[in-house]
Amino acid sequence: MNAPIIIAALIVVLLIVFFTVIPVGMWISAIASGVKISIFSLVGMKLRRVKPVRIVSPMIKATKAGIAVKTNELEAHYLAGGNVDSVINALIAAERAGMDLTFEQASAIDLAGRDVFEAVTMSVTPKVIETPQISAVAKDGIELLVKARVTVRTNINQLIGGAGEATVLARVGEGIVTTVGSAQTHSSVLENPDDISKVVLEKGLDSGTAYEIISIDIADIDIGRNIGANLQSLQAEANTKIAQAKAEERRAMAVALEQEMKAEVVKAEADVPRAMAEALKSGKLGVFDYYKLQNVQADTKMKNDIGNGVMEYVDKKTDK
User: Fold this and answer.
1) Higher per-residue confidence, 212 vs 284
2) Is the pLDDT of residue 57 over 60?
3) CA distance 45 to 48
4) What per-residue string of b and e applies to 65-99 under the rule 16 or more CB within 10 Å gives b?
5) Listed ranges 28-42, 164-178, 224-238; the one with the highest mean pLDDT
6) Distance of CA 55 to the CA centre of its chain
7) Beta 142-154 vs 134-137: how paired, if at all?
8) Can you name the residues that pair with 223 across neighbouring β-strands?
9) Which residue among 60, 164, 190, 286 is the one 20 to 30 A from 180 at the CA level?
């Protein structure tokens, strides 16, 4: 009596293992959806460590959308680390939008690390990118702070290897700086801000990028600093410092020259007694002449002292 129970238990275990190894439910769903896939293909996926649901579910979506895909292609993309579901969604979106996108292109974009479904969506519905505040200076020295909105859509053909949003924003900023910098006055830019958009668009800034620029709209322009006046002020300050340095140099030279002249006078005065001694010795100067010279010097000194005293007295009276 134990034998039938053991046999029944073995049958139950075998059925559990069978339905675990072989995704019969997935196979039935695929057949019901019109996807031509054999039960052995699903078993092979299990053996290749490919999750059947990752392949069958996208195939069901593609079949319902009328897109022909092969199981081997989906498996290869999955094993390469790609997102099969995102690729199928992108193909469906491209087919509905009338875009010519093949499975090879979509899988290559996905393996390149880009969101292929988002790229297709951006190609159908353009995206608006706002630049940060860009500082540019017109020829009259007035700074303008410009913000722009750039409308772009994905360029599928250049999505692989093409530059991203940062490059587009950098090029737009460069174009704005160049355009404002070539304007004669800042008022002309304020009067015609659309001229910036026209000039920047003509430069073909989207070349080599993964996007196509549709339009560039100036969102805001503010007046910043007077750069020209600031530069002139700094230049004037620098010139003043240079003039002061030169004046100080001339004053120092004058002081040095005065000191040299005083030294020459002291040297000459030192030679007077020696000359007088030689004159007395040689008889060219008499003793009475010497005393007479001494009296003249003393008289001169006395007069100078009296004059200095009178001047000090006058100054004191004036102060009172």
Assistant:
1) 212
2) yes
3) 5
4) eeeebebeebbebbeeebbbbbbbbbbbbbbeeee
5) 164-178
6) 44
7) antiparallel
8) 144
9) 164
Whether the model clears a pTM of 0.85, i.e. scores above it, the answer is no
Length of the chain: 320
What does the alpha-carbon distance between residue 138 and residue 23 come to, in Å, rounded to a whole number?
A: 71
Q: pLDDT for 123-162, tens place per residue?
A: 777 888 888 888 888 888 888 888 888 888 887 777 777 7
Q: Looking at 36-45, 74-83, 162-171, 184-193, which range is the least confident one?
A: 36-45
List pLDDT tens digits, range 285-296: 666 666 676 777
Mapping DSSP onto H, E and C, the string for the chain reads CHHHHHHHHHHHHHHHHHHHHCCHHHHHHHHHCCCCCCHHHHHHHHHCCCCHHHHHHHHHHHHHCCCCCCHHHHHHHHHCCCCHHHHHHHHHHHHHHCCCCCHHHHHHHHHCCCCHHHHHHHHHCCEEEECCCEEEECCCCEEEEEEEEEEEEECHHHCCCCECHHHHHHHHHHHHHHHHHCCCCHHHHHHCCHHHHHHHHHCCCCCCECEEEEEEEEEEEEEEEEHHHHHHHHHHHHHHHHHHHHHHHHHHHHHHHHHHHHHHHHHHHHHHHHHHHHHHHHCCCCHHHHHHHHHHHHHHHHHHHHHHHHHHHHHHHHHC
Query: CB under 8 Å, gap of 24 or more: what pairs does 197-202 form?
Result: 197/148, 199/175, 200/172, 200/175, 200/176
Instruction: Tell me what the mean pLDDT of segment 37-43 comes to.
Output: 76
Question: Residue 310 has what pLDDT?
Answer: 60
- With a pLDDT cut of 70, the percent of the chain lying above it is 82
Q: Take residue 308 and report the two structure tokens written for it.
A: 């200095």
Task: Kindly give the interhelix angle for 24-32 and 39-47, rounded to the nearest 10 degrees.
Answer: 130
- Comparing CA positions, the residue from 104, 129, 297, 302 lying closest to residue 210 is 129
